[in-house]
Amino acid sequence: DIQMTQSPSSLSASVGDRVTITCRASQDIRYYLAWYQQKPGTVPKLLIYGASTLQSGVPSRFSGSGSGTDFTLTISSLQPEDVATYYCQTYDSAPQTFGQGTKVDVK
Amino acid sequence: EVQLLESGGALVQPGGSLRLSCAAFEFTFSSHFMSWVRQAPGKGLEWVSTVSSTGRNTYYSDSVKGRVTISRANSKNTLFLQMNSLRAEDTAVYYCAKVRASETYYDAYDYWGQGTLVTVSS
Questions:
Q1: Strands B109-112 and B18-25, how do they pair?
Q2: Measured CA angle at A50 (ends B80, B26), to 5 deg
Q3: B9-65 pLDDT, tens per residue?
Q4: Which residue of chain B is at minimal alpha-carbon distance from A102?
Q5: CB-CB neighbors (< 8 A) of B47 in chain A
Q6: pLDDT per position as a tens digit, A16-68
Q7: Where are the alpha helices (DSSP H) in chain A?
Q8: Closest CA to B103 of B74, B68, B78, B81
Q9: Contacts of B44 in chain A (CB under 8 A)
């Protein structure tokens, strides 16, 4: 089974900061990676699919990159509404796997 | 607007059974693979199962394999999850989720239901 390791597990940054979250797969998953945002008490929301394609309606400050085993989610300028837990997910094969999540707070 | 409405969650004793349903609206249900994803209280997301658009192919996590059956009724735009031999560790909110692109397993989930809570406890 593919393991997905996210880092850091949590971070706190100031409004306007550039924030980077990484996700590493235990084996090559090509570009079959998605990023989700889950705000407290809400349903997960798709941000990025295919490792780097922005889902319709998602602000352009979010971007994704990577392929193979190493992937990155970047928030170019952190906003107060970005407080959430972020998950990566691979759909390269079964079983699918989510990362353990990265909790993002604003200082 | 696409909607997914889960139902069937309940408090059930260990060893019991439960059937979850997910009614789908405003998209061509029969063209999309569908999945169940769960989230234990205060924990992260865990993929449970996926079914192909026709229902012919099914996929399960190791943690539920042999105890859970995913199915769908395309004529009724409804997804199901039959859960047997339930354990305390199955306690979670269960979400149904739609695969973004049609006729493929290999894509992300673009719509999620609000979830239904399954509590396994005596």
A1: unpaired
A2: 40
A3: 999 999 999 999 999 999 999 999 999 999 999 999 999 999 999 999 999 999 999
A4: B44
A5: 89, 95-98
A6: 999 999 999 999 999 999 999 999 999 999 999 999 999 999 999 999 999 99
A7: none
A8: B74
A9: 85, 87, 98-101
